[in-house]
Structure prediction request, 308 residues.
Amino acid sequence: MTAAFLVASAFLASAVEFVEALTIVLAAGLTRGWRSSLTGLAAATVVLAAIVAVLGPALKHIPIGALRLGVGALLLAFGLQWLRKAILRASGYKALHDEDAIFAREAEEARAAGSEVRAGLDWYGFTLSFKGVLLEGLEVAFIVITFGSTQGRIDLAAIGAGAALVLVAVVGVVVHAPLSRVPENTMKFAVGVMLTTFGIFWSTEGAGAHWPGDDASLPGVLAFVILLSFGAVTLLKRRREPALA
Amino acid sequence: MRFLRFWWDFVVGDDWRAALGVVIALGATAGLVAAGLNAWWLMPVAVAAVLFASLRREARKAS
Prediction:
């Protein structure tokens, strides 16, 4: 159960980030040329692989209790950000994430930017793609390392993220447009729930407390976070309706 | 400075009070455990409180 939950969480969280990275790579490629955009993508991938390769094994030297406490706290802080935004989007307090609109804005900015060639590459296209992939990829690296290290299974988290990368890349090549039909807002909600669930679970263990039934209580924590989230959406919608009327 | 700003935005985001609430709740859990109480229930309760407080602030700002 925990292994399946780990792979599914890493897959979903990574897929959301890869969809966003794809939008930026497409905007750079279609407006500034594919060579600079794909070189930026490749350079960012190398940097990310180096980060995971260095940090992953280094974390094995930290005592598991301290690792779970630190990682759990980070996951919780990070997860609450996602969950809060997802709840605000679902209740109408924040605009929904729109991949088409983001693509249009990035493409417009890329068209308007001046032309500068460095190392034989269109520099704007290269840096747009590099920065976009690096920033979105850092979140994936963070998720793979934190999810995997707390359970001693970075390999499983990496499999989940790798599967998401392959799926998004294949669909991106086939569709050749922003993946606006992906239910990204729902996926972001699910990721917020999962990050928060893992964060509560591991930080509590890291603080020295023990869950009744150990790992078997993870589904219970998940159910609690889901109920909490839907409860919050319902309350916020009720609060918003009279204000709109 | 930009490096620190990036990591602050990445981990803490736009509501530092939520992150602070998490840290306080973790400290309280560790304290109760040290006092001999298996306080596994504290973090879920604290997360619920932190989340609702953060959402309330955001909803007030929007309305």
About this structure: The two ends of chain A are 46 Å apart (CA to CA).
